[in-house]
Amino acid sequence: MELGSQIKRHRTERGLSQDDLAAKIYVSRQTVSSWENDKTYPDVESLLLLSVLFDVTVDELIKGDVEAMKEAISNDYKKMAALASGGLVIAIVGAVAAVGGIGWWDWGIVPSVIIGLLVWGIGMAMLVRVERMKKEHDLVTYRELVAYSKGEPIDRNNPKSQRARQHRILKGVALTLVAAAVGAVIGYFGYMFLG
Fold first, then answer.
1. Position 62 confidence tier, pLDDT thresholds 50, 70, 90
2. What is the pTM of this model?
């Protein structure tokens, strides 16, 4: 990232210490040090004060970082897409291994179920990671995900986004109960048919 080096360069060009700069923009010396070491980023107000003090535009201060952030977003989206695709395929392979091991390949019920669950579990772990990444970036709807993938601003104030954010825990519990019921029915009929 370039913002830290930009702040340090402008500060030293003006003969300011970190303490001097901190006093001029109303932050602590540790905050300036964190900015210069790319540990944290200035808030909008601090960026504006820095741009006035250094007589540069905010765009000039953060230009390199904007490109780096776009690249990071692109990499995150590619990672999410790869994990989602791979997780889905692996979960399906696990289910097929369990059913095929019992019905066609004569592995026996216990080994088939164990192998199927292990492979399915790996796929599900990948899908859970995708959900965590979406949560980190507060992406709920497909529209938000598409905007994120393109590096566009995300509109979270539209009615669909607001509706999707309501009662998330209740929706998760309901979905889990429905999935458990469907799994129980499939398991029961599978046992009756194959057992």
1. confident
2. 0.56
